[in-house]
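Notebook, p. 212. Picked up where the previous page left off. The plan for this session was modest: take the two constructs that came back from the sequencing core last week, fold each one, and keep the raw output in the notebook itself so nobody has to go hunting through shared drives later. Recording the first one now, exactly as returned: residue sequence, then the structure token string.
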Amino acid sequence: MNPLATEAPAPALQRVCFLLALRPDRVDDYLAAHEYVWPEMLDALRTAGWRNYSLFLRREDGLVVGYVESEDPAAMTAAISATDVDARWQATMAEYFEPSARPDEPLEFLTHYFHLP
């Protein structure tokens, strides 16, 4: 091994955030559906590069805020969208969302403009 060789630094994780809109009358059902997320869905998310993924809810109007970290957010979303398990999960979740906020549509990431480490 070459003592002068150095390992390439790991790609930096990017923090991304997105919004989803639940039907306010289906919030409780949506939360219940997330009490047991299919293990194969969790595995697919990890394999696709989703890290430190969290969902937050404003119950009054069904606003969902998603937060995830990834080395490559575009590749992360493309990878999960290409899986059969994601298609099945999104089909199951579709009934909880406002018609204009389909969960199977590409995510629109919010602009990240400040971070306090």
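Okay, moving on. Second construct, recorded in the same format:
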Amino acid sequence: MGRRAPGAEQPRKLTVQEHDRAWHAIEGAAGQPDADPGTVLAAVLHALRIEAPTAEDEQAYLLAKRAGQASGKSYEKQKAECLAAMADADIASHPSRI
């Protein structure tokens, strides 16, 4: 494995059972005629009982990442600001939610 930045999270080691489920999910998904990386990843995450990020999570991440590159703010601060902005926009578009 490569070097990790100081303070970075330690990787979690898969259990033997998780590894087996992931292996079989990859074998099954990769053999499908329409298999692509997303299909294989979805099969592995499902086999490991891990939820993928939602479209909203991905959107917030991308917005925060773009804003962070421009402003130099930390990712966590960016994420909080983006989620707040998304919530405000949602409330503004649906006044009945106020």
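Notes on construct two before I forget. The mean pLDDT is 78.
Flagging for discussion at group meeting.
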